Amino acid sequence: MNIFCEGMNVDIKRSDGRVHGACISQINSVKQCVHVEWYEAGETKGKELPIRTLLATNPMLAQMYQKNLNGMTTSTTSSNFENNISHKIVPTPTSDQPKIIKPTTKTSVRNSMFVTPTNEVPKKIITPSIEAVKFFDEETLREDLDKTDFMLVTKNKPIALKSAVKSQTVLEIERLAKEREERRAKQIEDKKQKEQMRKVDPNNPNWEYYNKIREIQSGLTFKPLIPSLNISEKRIAVCVRVRPLSEKEVKKNEIEVLSIPNSKLLMVHQPQSKVDTTKYIQNYNFDFDCVFDEHATNDGIYKATTQPLVQTFFDQGFVTCFAYGQTGSGKTFTMSGAKGGTENNSRGIYAQTAKEIFDKLNSSQMKNSGLYIDCAFFEIYGNKAYDLLNNRSELRVLADNNDEVQIVGLKTQQCNSDSEVLQVIKKGVLKRVSGQTSANATSSRSHAIFQFILKNNDGKLWGKLSLVDLAGNERGADTGNSDIQTRREGAAINKSLLALKECIRHMSDPTKEHVPFRNSALTQFLKDSFIGKNSKLCMIAMVSPAIGSCEATLNTLRYAHAVKQLLGDKDSNIDDLDIKYEESDEEYDESLKLTEIATHRASLLEVKDCKESMVQIAEKSVKKLNLLTTNLEKFVNKGSTVASNDIQSYAEDFTKFVSIFKDQVTTLTTELENECNQLTECLQSSVENRKPKGNRNYRN
User: Fold this and answer.
1) Is residue 332 part of an annotated ligand binding site?
2) What is the model's pTM?
3) Domain, as residue range, for 623
4) pLDDT in tens, 625-643
5) What DSSP character marks residue 401?
6) Is 329 annotated as contributing to ligand binding?
7) Is 478 part of a structural domain of the chain?
8) Is 330 annotated as a binding residue?
């Protein structure tokens, strides 16, 4: 230490790497450090440096320091330097002492350590007290506090702990940047796939939905559609027929959105779009008693649905078969045949049923039974009934003493062969009300009911078979810009269909004593089909596979499925789907256990990281508080010896220090509170993850 003296010019190295000159203002032999000061930007700045740091930037002093340690320096030089350490007033220079030169920023140790004495008149020079001007260096203190943070972050600790120290804002920015890069990469990949898919059918506006539906269908197992329905064993049966695409739909490049994996299951692929215009498919599964695709014929549908009910008709039963569906879905074609029964009507259910009935009547077993067939054909338009075989005369429905339905004014025509039945049907179809809508040029605007009435020789009712061609369930979009009359027709149609559903619901519920037949004329005329002791009902839902009719198709299927569910039929066929991603119950339970274990381990690691992060913040707080306390002790020690003319400077510096002290304590307290809260949340989350999960909701 005896090679240094107050006022000596040395080179120092700043934290940013700059090297410049400074003047030693104080020497602390106890701490083995010196306090240096320099002028910068019109201000006096200073900092405390260890001896070793100072020697590293001053090679000449390092050599002298080494020689001094080896005992090669003179005692005179040592005594002069020691005297200079304890005096703030520099003695008058003599011929035996070097003259101290005022330090400047350009002075170095090489040209200012020893100065030749001059012959000037000795004068007592009073050097201003550096401590009176500057009692602490704010910049140095802040640098030391920052070093504490830097030393803690760069400490050799696990990588997971280092990442926990990062600011939440930094972590959030990194996460968003990573997600943005992944999203852009996915968008580029999706764009390439879309370009490849578009080449398959470039003129189709629905090409994207088409490819997504084909991708879904590739994961299904399709089985041959073999109807195995035994209608005679069920009181209510529900079937679905999917018609082929019409010419109008083909011209519009509409695609099919229906899949039929087997004869009892129908899947609807509803096209959807997200807010960002991303297209996706929403799948709906419906199970029915029988499903027919677009290749099914009227003959095949008749054999699977209506033919088994003919025997019930001859067994004094009341049988009803009706076609339900959207406008233009093929109801009239199924019931009457091509062109609404006016041409080639032998293909419809009307003609097929007539042929079956007369084949049985003419069989050897029933030839002498005395039974004969009367036919009636009427329609329900609005909420009124009109006889199609009697110039559309209005009909009324009443109940007799036996609470049996009696239709007042209904004209019946006895038929002895199926050909006569076809003539009656042709005559009635010409009288039926039809209209034009945006969905169908010849839309049926009424419910047509054709009845086979079986009577004995006494003219008493033996059985009744009703074939109902319902009007289409209407949407406002289907009627387009039609007049008010067309819209009223649609409202009446929907009201009657709702009443029909309510009657079916009450009929299938044994707890319901009252069936609301009076809600609609349709249900009033079909009352005996619902309350008869031997009554059976078959519903054929007609749907379109086109993407433009997807909403109407879903409404029809939901209506039909609701009718099936009203029967309490729990035999669901949805599980017949052989989908690749479906797991068994045991596999699901095992997967659930593994998921819970992984979640528990992840929560424990999160708790550990939170704990280590809190410990690190606590260590940083302790080091910063120790540094602040040390500087506070220096202020207290200097306060007892401060000169009267330096009290104001002392007070100003003390105020700055207290402000720094307060800010640091507030920041550390906030960080500790945040870490404690985060640790508490991690512990609570870990406890929740260890709780046993609730019972699994199995598929119905």
Assistant:
1) yes
2) 0.54
3) 140-165+598-638+647-692
4) 888 788 777 777 777 777 7
5) T
6) yes
7) yes
8) yes
